[in-house]
Design goal:
The protein is of the alpha+beta class. It has 18 helices and 23 strands. It catalyses: ATP + protein L-histidine = ADP + protein N-phospho-L-histidine.
Length: about 650
């Protein structure tokens, strides 16, 4: 006879449906009369109550996979029923291992009226046990302090990490209030935490301070989560406390380092910048913007590159390309000029580092920029000053060298040229004194004494003239060489007409020079050409411009890319080329005094005059075929029309 429970079905649903295990009830004949939701999930179907018996909902097998009927009427009546582990096959063919437990149901008089069967998934139980063991292992081995407490703040668990961080053992802390770890001035934090917990909120990475057993204050980061019971009611909280004291110290150190770096950058007026090559994003400091002087628009990479001084752009691009392809280094270091928005030009020292992707592609450049305009200006002034002082020193050395040469020549003159007429004068005076009377030759003696005295006077006058060359006018002025030539020809008009001299000249340039010395130069060259000619003198004056590489071998290079050449060519007696340098030395003569009058100072004066004009003079000739005297002057002395 079947027994139903019409009055208790609703109550059973409320009690058994929330259970995680499968629970169902059979009458005394084995017909299923009630089952909970977990049973339906286990079977994979919903059998109709009162129409299916025992295990009609699913097939069962023992742990070896053999068919097994644990709930047969015979086994129940014989009292052989016990707890079983068995495989249950659902309607979809999937199997799961369950542990079953059957209990008898009796009425008030003790009569057997049915059975209640409980089926617990062995797999789920094992998994839950494994999870619990794994969780416990994590908690115990964690470096962080993991603590649980009630909502009233009573500590209920304490792991090894908590003992290591705070110094208290579990026995010392379980049952104690959490306030034992909180400095007195921070107790109000616990009220705030409890308020969040009661609302079910989770607190993550809350940084605060806690106190250890020995009174040391620690910086900690707290993560606090509510703990709920099976019914979802909040009954406590778990706290994970991480010691971040070292991290805080490092943060402070980093902030101090950044502050020192910032102060150093500001003090040094150093600009910083970075450029994302892929996205073309430029980040820069105020000082960088100041260097580029872009006040009316934002500074971009294009604007930065456009502001580079035109003559420096190729060099900058080449250095950038070199840095962006050098994966091993990527260093970028260059000095270049920047044209600001106001058109002012500034010098900048730019240093950077290129960073590459794993594929070797340039991704980013980070760098600094320093305004070195003042440094460059100072350096240029210093270099210019040094160059000027060096040039002055060089001129002084050159002047000293010439002075030494002049002294040597004067010493030679004093010991030779001046001595020679003096010896003659002395000789004739001695003769006169020895004879004690006038003989038939006195007139000849006195003439020769007079001639020697006149020669010595001429030599002294020539020496004075030579020495005065350096003390005459030194200020260069605009000088027309055509007028200089005209004045010289007027001075020598009588001599030119008497000798029938023919003079041809090209148009001569206007130069910056010393007019009186240039007049003496032209006069000496023209008078020599007339004097040292045994036929009708012909003089040709020509001029042209040459580059230094067009000059003959042996001729020194002037301090000028181009030179002005003025040539005086005559048809005189000429000279042997081996004496080309000797003829420019003071008092050096190639002919006897009786053959050609003069002191031998003319060409020496010409040489000194040309040197005073930063030029050079040389000559070439051939005996009895004339000679050519070539004057070279720096082109920068020429005034171009």
């Amino acid at each position: 006879m079947s027994v139903t429970f019409p009055d208790t079905k609703y109550l059973l649903q409320q009690v058994l449906d929330p259970q995680q295990d499968a629970v169902y009830i059979c009458d005394s004949n084995g017909f299923i009369v009630f089952y909970n939701e977990a049973s339906a999930k286990l079977w994979g179907r919903r059998p109709e109550p009162g129409k299916e018996k025992w295990t009609a909902a699913w097939k069962t097998f023992d742990e070896k996979g053999q068919p097994f009927a644990p709930f047969s009427t015979e086994s129940i009546m014989n009292g052989k029923l016990s707890i079983h582990n068995m495989l249950v096959e659902k309607s979809d063919g999937k199997r799961t291992l369950v542990k079953t437990n059957l209990r008898y149901l009796h009425d008030e008089e003790g009569a057997h009226i049915g059975f209640i069967v409980n089926c617990e998934s062995v797999l789920s139980q094992n998994i839950n046990q494994q999870k619990e063991a794994h969780l416990a292992a994590i908690v115990e081995t964690s470096d962080d302090a993991i603590i649980s407490k009630t909502l009233d703040g009573v500590i209920t668990s304490w792991n090894a990490g908590a003992e290591r961080i705070f110094g208290y053992t579990a026995d010392e802390m379980i049952g104690q209030l959490i306030f034992k770890l909180i400095p007195g001035n921070l107790w109000n934090e616990e009220s705030m935490i409890q308020e969040h917990l009661r609302r079910g909120s989770r607190i993550e990475h809350y940084e605060t301070v806690r106190i250890t057993k020995n009174g040391k204050l620690l910086n900690v980061s707290l993560t606090i989560s509510p703990i709920k019971d099976a019914n979802g009611k909040i009954v406590g909280a778990s706290k994970i406390a991480r010691d971040i004291t070292l991290q805080k110290m490092q943060e402070v150190s980093l902030r101090e380092s950044e502050e020192r770096y910032r102060l150093a950058i500001e003090t040094a007026r150093l600009g910083t910048w970075s450029f994302d090559i892929k996205n073309h994003n430029l980040a820069y400091s105020t000082e960088t913007a100041n260097i580029f002087g872009t006040w009316s628009k934002a500074l971009t990479w294009a604007v930065m590159m456009e502001a580079i001084y035109p003559e420096d752009k190729d060099l900058v691009n080449a250095r950038l390309q070199e840095a962006m392809t050098n994966v091993d280094s990527g260093d970028y270091d260059i000095e270049y000029r920047v044209v600001q928005e106001s058109k002012a030009i500034r010098w900048a020292r730019v240093r950077g580092k290129v960073y590459f992707s794993s594929n070797g592609d340039a991704e980013k450049i980070i760098g600094t920029m320093l305004d070195i305009t003042d440094e460059k200006t100072t350096k240029e002034i210093l270099e210019q000053t040094v160059a000027e002082r060096t040039a002055d020193l060089s001129r002084m050395n050159e002047h000293l060298l010439k002075s030494n040469e002049n002294l040597a020549q004067f010493a030679y003159i004093a010991s030779h040229d001046l001595q020679e007429p003096l010896r003659k004068i002395q000789t004739f005076i001695d003769i006169i004194e020895k004879n004690g009377r006038l003989d038939p030759m006195p007139a000849n003696y006195f003439n020769r004494i007079k001639s020697s005295a006149e020669r010595m006077s001429g030599l002294v006058e020539s020496i004075l003239e030579y020495s005065r060359i350096d003390r005459q006018e030194t200020q260069f002025v605009k000088t027309n060489l055509n007028l200089i030539l005209k004045e010289v020809l007027e001075d020598y008009e009588t001599l030119i007409n008497t000798t029938g001299t023919q003079i041809q000249s090209q148009q001569l340039p206007v130069i910056m020079g010393l007019p009186s010395q240039l007049r003496q130069l032209f006069a000496n060259l023209i008078s020599n050409a007339i004097k040292f000619c045994e036929t009708t003198p012909c003089i040709n004056i020509s001029t042209r411009f040459l580059f230094n590489d067009q000059l003959p071998d042996g001729v020194p290079i002037l301090d000028s890319e181009r030179v002005l050449e003025i040539s005086f060519t005559d048809n005189g007696i000429g000279f042997e080329q081996q004496y080309a340098e000797k003829i420019f030395q003071i008092f050096q003569r190639l002919h006897s005094k009786s053959a050609y009058k003069g002191t031998g100072i003319g060409l020496a004066l010409c040489k000194k005059i040309i040197e005073n004009h930063q030029g050079y003079i040389y000559a070439f000739g051939e005996r009895d075929k004339g000679s050519t005297f070539v004057i070279l002057l720096p082109a920068h002395l020429v005034i171009m029309k």
